[in-house]
Amino acid sequence: MNNAQRIALILAAANLALLLVFPPYDYVSLQYGNIATFDGFYLVFGDHQNRVVNANFLALEIIVVLINTCIALLLLRQQPPRQLGRAGGNSRQRAVLALVAINLVLALLFPPFEYFSAITKAALPTFEGFYFVFGDNSLRQMVTPILYLEVALILINGALLWLLLRDKTPEEVSAEQARALAQSVRAARKK
User: Fold this and answer.
1) Average pLDDT of the chain?
2) pTM, full prediction
3) Total Cβ atoms within 10 A of residue 39
4) Which distant-in-sequence residues (6+ apart) come within 8 Å of 172 by Cβ?
5) Using an 8 Å Cβ cutoff, are 43 and 18 in contact?
6) Cβ–Cβ contacts within 10 Å for residue 107, how many?
7) How far is it, in rounded angstroms, from Cα 97 to Cα 187?
8) SS3 of residue 142 by DSSP
9) Alpha-carbon distance 18 to 10, whole Å?
């Protein structure tokens, strides 16, 4: 592990500590029919009347910090001089990792919300739009099922792009080589 990776781990630990000291809270009000609406981030040691920790959003925040830490560790590793056939990631794969990290952070900064009046107990929730998480969301509830889907799709797309953009090793056969091999096998069978 090099110094840059150590710094990334220290920053990740600081981020996790910050997330746990200032977790996201929902406000539960009788006025809104006991529907929890997103209220903001408060010190965990304080006395917060009618507020509960939004455990789903906190879990997603922790997951995103851990995933971004893994991405940072991959991006900051020291690469030996490239040799033919050596797998180690290319610049396109590194760009995919950086874009996945940025997308995950943006997904948490602008989560999907719905107004408390539109909240139903339906299996598929509705949502009004994506709002800045540090804005006034006192009349909105975060739609965590949609946010979970958003994070999962970002990760799946990132993984597929990572695999698609990898370098070929010398052991791999190209499509043209596979066709030539198949034709030579057919020709050998006919003889």
Assistant:
1) 83
2) 0.68
3) 19
4) none
5) no
6) 18
7) 45
8) strand
9) 12
